[in-house]
């Protein structure tokens, strides 16, 4: 029987929780459409000939689209101090600010900077999901 090597990093935050955050962050990013103008969304082609432009009531859709962001904000706010610091450190790792070997430094820095605006800080990053995913990959989690 072969034993698996012990992980160098013992995460307080469950990697599956981070994966949930990744999914929600990517859903939020996908919902942002930079070519949105005057309530019109992308052109839809039917049968190769006709075109239809999706029109919507912006307020009704905006409210439902924001639910994912609200949920993610609440989930991040519910993290304890260590989990929140690790989440921020994962972002920094995924963004390339730190290397995997500097994990403890990143967590220490995040703990020192820790405040009650962690969700606002993280949700302000358009590539949050990608950074978290890269951070987990770097740790092999």
UniProtKB/TrEMBL annotation:
| Pfam families the UniProt entry points to | DUF3775
Q: Which domain of life is it from?
A: Bacteria
Q: Where is this region: Disordered?
A: 34-64
Listed Basic and acidic residues bias regions: 39-59
Q: Output this protein's name.
A: DUF3775 domain-containing protein
Which species is listed as the source? Answer: Oryzicola mucosus
Q: What is the lineage of its organism?
A: Bacteria, Pseudomonadati, Pseudomonadota, Alphaproteobacteria, Hyphomicrobiales
């Amino acid at each position: 029987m072969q034993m698996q090597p012990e992980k160098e990093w013992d995460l307080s935050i469950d990697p599956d929780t981070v994966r949930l955050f990744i999914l929600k962050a990517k859903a939020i990013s996908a919902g942002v459409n930079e070519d949105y103008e005057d309530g019109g969304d992308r052109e839809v082609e039917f049968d190769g000939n006709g075109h239809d432009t999706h029109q919507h009531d912006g307020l009704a859709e905006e409210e439902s689209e924001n639910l994912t962001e609200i949920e993610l904000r609440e989930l991040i706010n519910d993290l304890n101090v260590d989990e929140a610091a690790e989440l921020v450190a994962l972002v920094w790792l995924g963004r390339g600010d730190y290397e995997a070997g500097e994990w403890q430094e990143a967590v220490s820095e995040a703990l020192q900077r820790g405040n009650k605006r962690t969700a606002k800080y993280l949700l302000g990053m358009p590539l949050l999901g990608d950074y978290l995913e890269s951070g987990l990959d770097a740790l092999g989690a």
